[in-house]
Specification:
With 307 residues, the chain is an alpha/beta fold. The chain has a single domain, classed as Alpha/Beta hydrolase fold, catalytic domain (Rossmann fold, 3-Layer(aba) Sandwich). The chain has ten helices and eight strands. An eight-stranded mixed sheet has the order 1-2-4-3-5-6-7-8, sandwiched between helices. The model has no long low-confidence stretch (mean pLDDT 96).
């Protein structure tokens, strides 16, 4: 189907404003994006900024609690941005909506960014944050039996990576994974890259830029900690929701990962949002953005019901 009119309006606005992530100095790109207006998110009962111990210093996290009575499900959330850009503020709007819709504590993680911190720094921080949440679940108002991971784009990559690492280590227990147009493979040869590599927000050039900053060298792309699609065995992975967008170069690798999970016997819900572009999730200018957040919330509730 044609590009969603609201998504096209976002593309037109970005083009008119000269906003591009196809290259340049990462610090300058971050500064440019930081000047964009931030929408005001939903109110939640409590928002707490704190830091937790990490493998190379403190990791900032932001904890969203929808209600203050009793323990509830929790989800550790990793923002997108190609491991190079993105931060807690950029993920704030979606995190608030998800906390309320899922009635879950959302712990948003500000992992180290590349190129200052190359692979596997982001993956290491992501796993340490998950382990910290599991260890401190009671004090966070989280039921330790109901901890999920999730993220969009590079954050979806990190969510899949930590879910696999936890599965292989046997701890911490991950009950569910929500993967929003995840990066799953260091490969630019898919049909969706050929169809959507230019002019639709996320481009092939921007993904080459992101991967080029994240990896120490191309051989890292063969590592399943960078490319979870290259995991040899996904048996026993947590149940998953995988959301993709029709006009997204990452569409095919996200759907391939869902198929690999399903083939391994993992319960998977997979949906392609027709007419949509990369970045639509939790985008206040796109109605499907809120619909996708509520889809994640509903999936979390089904996978991790309360007593």
């Amino acid at each position: 189907m044609p590009i969603n009119p609201q998504a096209q309006a976002v593309l037109d606005m970005m083009a008119a404003a000269g906003i591009s992530i196809d290259g340049g100095d990462p610090v300058a790109v971050r500064e440019m994006l930081s000047m964009a207006p931030r929408p005001e998110g939903e109110a939640v009962a409590q928002v707490e900024n704190r830091t937790i111990p990490g493998p190379a210093g403190e990791i900032p996290v932001r904890i969203y609690t929808p209600r203050l009575d009793g323990a509830r499900a929790g989800i550790v959330w990793y923002h997108g941005g190609g491991w190079v850009i993105g931060n807690l503020d950029g993920a704030d709007y979606g995190a608030r909506m998800l906390a309320n819709a899922a009635d879950a504590v959302v712990v948003s993680v500000d992992y180290r960014l590349a190129p200052e911190n190359k692979f596997p720094a982001a993956a290491d921080d992501a796993f340490v944050a998950l382990a910290w949440v599991a260890e401190h679940a009671a004090s966070l108002g989280i039921d330790p039996r109901r901890i999920a991971v999730g993220g969009d784009s590079a954050g979806g990559n990190l969510a899949a990576v930590v879910a696999n690492k936890a599965r292989k280590l046997g701890t911490p227990a991950v009950a569910f994974q929500a993967l929003i147009y995840p990066v799953t493979n260091y490969d630019f040869g898919t049909k969706s890259y050929a169809e959507n590599g230019e002019g639709k927000l996320l481009t092939r050039a921007s993904m080459e830029w992101f991967w080029g900053h994240y990896l120490r060298d191309a051989s890292d792309g063969e590592n399943a900690l960078a490319s979870p699609l290259r995991e040899t065995d996904l048996t026993g992975a947590p149940p998953a929701l995988v959301i993709t967008a029709e006009y997204d170069p990452l569409r095919d690798e996200g759907e391939a990962y869902a198929a690999r999970l399903r083939a391994a016997g993992v319960p998977v819900e997979s949906q392609r949002y027709e007419g949509q572009i990369h970045g639509f999730y939790a985008n206040p200018a796109i109605d499907d953005g809120a619909a996708a957040v509520h889809q994640v919330a509903a999936a979390l509730r089904r996978a991790m019901p309360g007593d």
